[in-house]
Write a structure and sequence with these properties.
Elements: E1 11-14, E2 18-21, E3 25-26, H1 42-54, E4 59-61, H2 70-79, E5 87-92, E6 94-98, E7 101-104, H3 108-122, E8 127-132, H4 141-153, E9 157-163, H5 167-176, E10 181-183, H6 194-203, E11 206-207, H7 223-233, H8 237-248, H9 261-268, H10 277-284
Parallel strand pairs: 3-4, 4-5, 5-8, 8-9, 9-10, 10-11
Antiparallel strand pairs: 1-2, 6-7
Length: 289
């Protein structure tokens, strides 16, 4: 943690060229259990997406396998034609065959086909940030990144991101091509990817932490400390968890998801919270991993 705390309502220059507000919106919760099929009424999902943009969100994070295809289609229906300042990120590299079946598919021909399908669903000819959802251990990294680099050179994607990898793998990837972002699990309780965060800071990469709200675990042993900090700011536990990420590092760009407009507004309220050095010290002590 730096001595000077980052501004929680600041922006980040993704890939050195795309400015985004650091608190974005993730679309996984617009789909059903296991990220499979639709969730609730379609009009409600569209309303949440539009509300996010109306409240100043400029980074929308989705994936081809949320649904599958459902989340990307919702993004396009709600937000296309996209505002100039809106950055759409999606992911490929994982195939779904059921609500609990995930298959890594990193062959170059698979990645190209998935990217092309995402372009059609998102109704665009270029994806701002295309993220490899998982590295395929059966395919050389150079082949996987080479496929994405070819798509970038063709103008079909603008920036490349990676999801769930080690610091050593990230350094290897950076030796092969330009990388703009990383998504790893990272939150108030789980800091196992701190080494990855340090690499992102060193290279100016965005770090989009998944499960930024600790997947509901914030009601456990952390509750007393969280309640104390939250009460001092007139905030909720979730808002403090998000504010902690925004203060923790200037490269952290959380994209919490929700299917509720009320919860969306609550999450975005974290941009207004200014944690003190004492708050941060208390929250830092909560790490379990």
């Amino acid at each position: 943690m730096s001595a000077s705390l980052p501004s929680p309502d600041g922006s980040f220059l993704l890939g050195g060229e795309l400015p985004v507000r650091r608190l974005g919106y993730g679309t996984a919760q617009l789909t059903g259990p296991g990220y499979w099929g639709p969730r609730g009424e379609r009009r409600d999902a569209l309303a949440v997406l539009r509300s996010a943009v109306e409240q100043g969100v400029t980074l929308i994070d989705t994936a081809d396998n949320y649904g599958p295809g459902v989340a990307e289609e919702l993004v396009a229906e709600a937000l296309h034609p996209y505002r100039d300042e809106l950055v759409i990120a999606t992911k490929g590299g994982v195939v779904r065959t059921g609500d609990s079946a995930w298959h890594i598919a990193g062959r170059p021909e698979d990645l190209r086909a998935m990217c092309e399908a995402s372009l059609r669903r998102l109704r665009t000819d270029r994806i701002d940030l295309y993220q490899l959802h998982r590295l395929d251990p059966q395919v050389p990294m150079a082949d996987q990144l080479g496929a994405l680099d070819a798509l970038r050179q063709e103008g079909k994607i603008r920036c490349i991101g990676l999801d769930t990898l080690t610091a050593d793998q990230l350094e290897q990837a950076l030796s092969l091509t330009g990388i703009a972002s990383v998504q790893n699990r990272f939150n108030l309780l789980d800091r196992a990817s701190d080494a990855v965060l340090k690499v992102c800071e060193a290279h100016g990469l965005a770090f989009l932490p998944w499960f930024p709200l600790a997947d509901g675990a914030l009601t456990g042993d952390a509750s007393a400390t969280l309640d104390g900090v939250a009460e001092s700011h007139g905030a909720t536990r979730g808002q403090i968890a998000l504010a902690w990420l925004l203060h923790r590092s200037p490269v952290l760009c959380p994209t919490p998801g929700t299917g509720s407009s009320v919860h969306l507004s609550e999450n975005l309220g974290a941009r207004e919270i200014r944690l003190t050095a004492e708050d941060m010290s208390r929250l830092e002590a909560l790490a379990t991993v």
